[in-house]
Design brief:
The protein is mainly alpha-helical and 136 residues long. It has a domain of 72 residues. 63% of the residues lie in helices and 0% in strands. The protein has 2 helices and no strands. Helix 1 runs antiparallel to helix 2. The protein is rod-shaped. The protein starts with 5 loop residues before the first helix and ends in a 41-residue tail after the last helix. The relative contact order is 0.07. The mean pLDDT is 81.
Length: 136
């Protein structure tokens, strides 16, 4: 039984990706620092490798943060372009006449062009170009 629909699952996946960035940042800094400290103890170069490890850890963490931000921006751009394309498609469809108008016979068997038009003169109405007889 699923509690979330497809949109909810998509949002939870995005939340999971974003929340791991902070963990990656912290873990890479700690690993760089502790790795540098271990190398300092091993080679006797007390503060140098600790600081280098911290710098490399920070660089790795911020690289991960940058990659996630770039990936998220690409997805947002793709979603925005898809939404704009769908809106343009809906606008174009709203401006087009329905598919049955002006083509083929209607249910009565007459084509739409055979149907009487409202702006055409009626056959029982007097024609304006016919001579009129004035009672004067």
């Amino acid at each position: 039984m699923a509690f979330l629909g497809p949109e909810g699952r998509k949002q939870m996946q995005q939340f999971g990706r974003v929340s791991t960035v902070g963990i990656e940042l912290a873990v890479s800094i700690v690993i760089g620092y502790l790795g540098g400290e271990w190398l300092d103890l091993r080679f006797g170069t007390e503060p140098v490798l600790k600081w280098l490890g911290l710098g490399f850890g920070m660089a790795a963490g911020f690289r991960s943060l940058y990659r996630m931000a770039r990936e998220t921006q690409r997805k947002l751009d793709a979603d925005r372009e898809a939404a704009e394309a769908a809106a343009a498609e809906r606008a174009a469809a709203a401006q087009e006449p329905p598919p049955n108008e002006g083509a083929g016979p209607s249910r009565s068997g007459r084509s739409h062009s055979d149907a009487p038009r409202s702006d055409a003169p009626r056959s029982d109405a007097p024609r304006s170009d016919a001579p009129r007889s004035d009672p004067d």
